[in-house]
Amino acid sequence: MPDAAAFDTPSAPILNVADGRAIVRLNRPRQHNRIEPQDLVALEQSFAHIDSDPSIRVLTLTASGKSFSSGFHIGALVERRAGTGDDPDPDAFERTVDRLEQLRVPTIAALNGSVYGGATDMALACDFRIGVEGMRLLMPAARLGIVYYESGLRRYVTRLGVATAKKLFLTAQPIDASEMLGIGYLDEIVPGEQLMARAEALADTLAANAPLAMAGLKRAINETAAGALDRDELAAARAVCSDSEDHKEALRAWAEKRAPRFTGR
User: Which of 17, 62, 159, 256 is most buried, with most CB under 10 Å away?
Assistant: First the structure.
């Protein structure tokens, strides 16, 4: 685990991996963890590392300080519009969030505070979202004169519903934690001091399941929600899992009334 002092110095997101659990921490607390163009590069690198390391079973995405994230840095958008910025790729944020959604491992957004703009979609791209008391959500696209990107709209509509997506996008008004729970944006709300313990407990539950089955189920559920299920890929995943050592171990553990010990093979 990085030294606590590392979180006092603004930086690109920090990746920590231990015991099969990965934690990515946004780390610009003085700027409410706004996401800079270079942070997207760091996030992409972290996600690539997580996908390539078979020992990693689960990812928790969280942040330093009192806010989860204020979203993409508006100043970078201004610079891009003026042609003075160093980020020529207008699709970088969407691509990074899509990469997060597509990770093979289950993902938990441990929202340590309020979430705004593009960061609301980043959390939606995770499989589970745990929030803290007193937090708020705001999607200000209409107030900024922006029509949101395709995959972000899809996540809002498929995860929260058409009516909720319209309310959040078209009114550009904040909602509190209780409403976030009511619309299904949050899976649960906890006191701030309990957030990471609750996220770690959920991570332990997820990491204890069969990795091949988890990856196949996650992909199939996401594709079904998007109306893009690849039936051949689903059949292939089912065949691989049925013939895996993990499936055999699960059956032995069931018969022996013990917890299974999965290896991801």
Answer: 62
Q: What is the DSSP letter of 19?
A: T
1 pLDDT more than 50: no
18 contact partners, CB below 8 Å, separation of at least 6: 1
DSSP letter for 120, please.
H
Kindly state whether residues 140 and 191 are assigned to the same domain: yes
Q: Residue 162 and residue 139: Cα distance in Å, rounded? A: 15
Residue 94 neighbours by CB distance under 10 Å = 18
Cross-strand bridge partners of residue 114: 67
Residue 264 located in a structural domain: no
CB-based burial label for 249 (10 Å; 0-12, 13-18, 19+): middle
Pick from 54, 48, 40: nearest CA to 12: 40
Min mean pLDDT across 5-14, 71-80, 214-223 is at 71-80
CA 234/CA 213 separation, integer angstroms: 11
Is this prediction's pTM over 0.85? Answer: yes
Strand locations in the chain (E): 11-18, 21-27, 58-63, 67-69, 107-110, 114-116, 128-132, 136-138, 175-176, 188-190
Query: For residue 233, what are the contacts with CB-CB under 8 A and spacing of at least 6?
Result: 219, 220
| Calpha distance 186→218 (Å, rounded) | 18
Domain of residue 233: give its range: 211-256
